[in-house]
Amino acid sequence: MAMLAASGFGIFRLAQLEPDNAVWQIWDYETFQQLKPHFTHPPWASINGWGGVSFWDLIQPSFMFMVGVAMPFSYARRGAMGSSNTRRLCHAVFRAIILTLMGVFLASQNSDSTNWIFTNVLAQIGLGYVFAYLLLGRSTSVQLGALVMILMGYWGFFVWNPPPAEYDYAAVDASLEDGQVFEGEFAAWSKNANAGHFFDVWFLNVLRNPADALPATDESDDEVVAVNSGAAAERDLLHRWLFSSPDRNTHNRGGYVTLNFIPSIATILLGILCGQLLMGRASTGNKLGTLILAGAICFGLGILAHDTVCPIVKRIWTPSWVLFSGGYVIWMLAAFYLVFDILPLRKLAFPLVVVGMNSIVMYMLGQLLRPWVGQQIVRTHFAGLLSEFFGEGCLEANGIGAMLVPTTTFAVFWLVAFWMYRNRYFVRV
Asked: What is d(CA 351, CA 371) in angstroms, rounded to the nearest whole number?
């Protein structure tokens, strides 16, 4: 959350500056070139070398995983407060709807009207949340069985819907040179040439023009035509009020698909399993060891799946990505558990606690107000102070300002979150 709100602290932007830029007289150019791939998404495949991964690719799996880790704690707390199963289910449904709508809201920035797409992380969490919730309180074997079924079913859905033989990849921004087009048995996992893409071409265009979903009729049947025309008129009115654009959806430029939420449920399930472990009565040492071992198993299975059944691609959340990224995020949880729960270093977590206690607020601030805060607040109120430390022109984008502005912007967001924390204002869904 901190990385997103801070836009990666501008590390990627600074690394994009030319080698002869004056900023490299102070900072090491080669170091930032090595950091650069970790603050952006790769063009398609999400594995580097034998098992490397971009840090930026792990942010969304971390979100999904965190949701899963928190769910057993929330479920137990609401039960202890006397909430019935029905009430807890209704709350889960309400939360799912709100998160999905918040994702749509963010996707509609700079649009003339509502942009009904669902690839934003909040929408993805919302779409899968209730399904994951229904697995809470089940036995571990049932949860593991559900995880396996999700991965195998999603794999089969893609494999059984490959692209046509003469598919025009260039028309959907897919490049063989950038590794976005797979050949042979992996062709079904190519960018904008996969089952998820084909689903969106149908589904998102139904949202754009609901009349397209009406069944074909015999034009000689005047009564049927009149009824369907009336239905079409009503749907067209709803379309003009709710939906974004009459233009047809052809593809997502980044290759992301709505159905990513299905394998994401498996990522949430991994979090649920880890949350249940942390709530259990095992010793801290056993919990830490189990987390490390579980991460290794997921990582190894992900690598094996990548070499045999499907490539590791975060943008379409392939089953191998679920396992591969799952290994990393479980190890991340193990590291936090070691540092903040086992070792006496909990105070070091305080800056992150401030962010985490109002994570929705931090995310929305970063998505909605980052440009305005960077341009108006930072430049207006902090330019003089920053110039004393970093020199004149320190806020220019072609210099240290590439990193200084987003970092200072994040500091403003953190102070807002700190004020909310001190006054016990916590925004929850």
From this structure: 23
pLDDT per position as a tens digit, 221-268: 555 445 455 555 555 555 454 554 556 788 999 999 999 999 999 999
Which residues, listed in sequence order, are joined to residue 48 by a DSSP beta bridge?
Answer: 52
Q: Angle at CA 130, nearest 5°, toward 318 and 278?
A: 80
C-alpha 185/C-alpha 272 separation (Å) is 33
Q: Name the band, by pLDDT with cuts 50, 70 and 90, for residue 324.
A: very high
Non-local (6+) Cβ contacts of 354 within 8 A are 414, 417, 418, 421
Res 330 pLDDT > 50 = yes
Q: How far apart are CA 309 and CA 313, in angstroms?
A: 12
The dihedral region occupied by 393, where left means phi > 0, alpha psi between -120 and 50, and beta the remainder, is: left
Residue pair 173/253 in contact (Cβ under 8 Å)? The answer is yes
Contacts of 62 (CB under 8 A, 6+ apart): 329, 332
Compute and round to an integer the Cα radius of gyration of the chain: 24
| Residue 264 backbone class (left: φ over 0; alpha: ψ -120 to 50; beta: rest) | alpha
Half-sphere exposure of 231 (CA within 13 A, CB side): 13
Q: Could you report the per-residue pLDDT of 45-78, keeping only the tens digit for each?
A: 999 998 999 999 999 999 999 999 999 999 999 8
What tokens were used for 288? 């830490």
Determine the Cα–Cα distance for residues 380 and 383; give it in Å rounded to an integer. 6
**From CA 394, how far away is CA 404, in angstroms rounded?**
8
Distance (Å, whole) CA 117 – CA 105: 10
Q: Give the count of beta carbons closer than 10 Å to the beta carbon of residue 190.
A: 26
**Whole-number Å distance between alpha carbons of 390 and 407:** 14
Give the pair of three-digit tokens for residue 275. 């949350």
For 174-191, the pLDDT digits (tens) are 999 999 999 999 999 999
Kindly tell me the sign of the dihedral angle through the C-alpha atoms of 253, 259, 265, 266: negative
pLDDT at 258: 97
Measured CA to CA in angstroms, residue 247 lies from 64, 105, 163, 218, 244 at distances of 32, 19, 23, 27, 9
Residue 141 in tokens: 């074997």
Q: Which of 141-150, 255-264, 383-392 has the lowest mean pLDDT?
A: 383-392
